[in-house]
């Protein structure tokens, strides 16, 4: 099925809600108003009947003890125009005045007219001629029977029907106007809601094409849409940094490989051309470069092994302080030769981990600290337990790391020194290996640094419970 656009869907939904509520309000208004109007017509009819009986009773000439025929004639005709068919009989049952006798044609016409009116109001209206009889009582004495005939159970006259139809017309116009307003408002709201989403789609499309610097700058006040824009922006930012890292990585790898290969090439060529003799010192220099290349490949394969999901850990329970003390011991000579002092503060921190691999982390961190700390500097090492973590902290007074490099130093081949001089050795893999091992143990390495003042690396591992 072809997907429908959000905008179309929202507009249709608004339209449907508007139609439903209008239909509901219209139906409710119609039914309840119709019922009220019927009640009104019924009570109006009853009032007319009461009034008729009183009025006709008043026409009995009390002194003469007889009905005033002339007045009955006049009143009866006036009532007939209002839809009331009057019949008066005297005490003995003799008809005194009867509208149907007086003008039967008009009576039939009036009843037909009413039936027509009611049918135009309601196609299957159940109505017909009805009559009620009342005794005419004068001075406590019954003087005859007044029979009031009408179209029942109730009827609407022309004015009523006109009123009803104009009411329906007003309801219809109001409905049409509010429906139009709903459609316009719905379309506007649908556009407003879908626009930022369309923008996000366009932006993600541009990002997918590789324009990682693209950012969404939508001034929105819908919380979810603001969050969506932020997510897309941070996604783009992370892709941008990954992309630049990837480019840098390729350049760094090329550089790492080029240096030993160039040295090898020139040495071998010089020997082939007979410029240099193929003697031991020259061959040893070639071997050194080959060893350097081999070390690089080894480190890379170690790293990929450590980063793989299936890394096997030979877990044993041991005290981190004892491992650290032993490792630091191996660095004491090198530190003394460089003129860097080592200060240790050990506290017990028992962990369950792969001893050799944790030892590798400590070696890599210590190696860096020593490498980047000039003579006269100091390195402080410490182990301790903090909450449920075993902590190894190493602080140096070396060159420090600039904030722009700090987020990337754990990336493979990343070196803060862009010239990648050989004096500081290294290929930029040590920290990547250290972090991979820490992560495999459910631990982490945090770093903080001040350029010119020194750096601090903190390894934290879960302690043995
Ligand atoms: N203690 C430190 N002081 C200053 N800079 C540091 C320190 N530790 C790491 N760095 C910076 O982080 C970069 C990456 O460190 P990492 O250990 O991964 O690589 P490396 O030491 O250059 O090479 P490798 O460890 O592979 O021999 C270093 O090149 C350096 O710029
Ligand atoms: Mg290193």
Order of helices and strands: HEEHEEHHEEHHHEHEEHEEHEE
What count of structural domains? 3
> What compounds sit in this structure?
adenosine-5'-triphosphate, magnesium ion
Count of helical stretches: 10
| Percent strand | 15-25%
Q: Compute the separation of the termini in Å.
A: 56 Å
CATH architecture of the largest domain: 2-Layer Sandwich
Class based on secondary structure composition and strand pairing: alpha+beta
**Which CATH C-level class of the largest domain is it?**
Alpha Beta
Rg estimate, integer Å: 52 Å
Helix content: 55-70%
Characterization of the model:
It is a single chain. The protein is an alpha+beta fold. The chain folds into 3 domains: 6-173, Beta-Lactamase (2-Layer Sandwich), CATH 3.30.450; 210-310, Orthogonal Bundle (Helix Hairpins), CATH 1.10.287.130; 311-462, Histidine kinase-like ATPase, C-terminal domain (Heat Shock Protein 90). The protein is built from 10 helices and 13 strands. The chain has helices at 6-57, 69-81, 99-102, 104-121, 158-208, 223-272, 280-307, 320-338, 355-372, 430-440; strands at residues 60-61, 66-67, 85-90, 95-98, 128-138, 141-152, 315-319, 341-345, 350-354, 378-386, 389-396, 444-450, 454-462. The strands form 4 sheets. Strands 8-10-11-13-12 form a 5-stranded mixed beta sheet, with helices on one face. Strands 4-3-6-5 form a 4-stranded antiparallel beta sheet. The chain has a two-stranded antiparallel sheet with strand order 1-2. Helix 9 (355-372) packs antiparallel against helix 10. The longest helix has 52 residues, at 6-57. The chain is rod-shaped, with a radius of gyration of 52 Å. The two termini are 56 Å apart. The structure holds adenosine-5'-triphosphate (ATP) and magnesium ion.
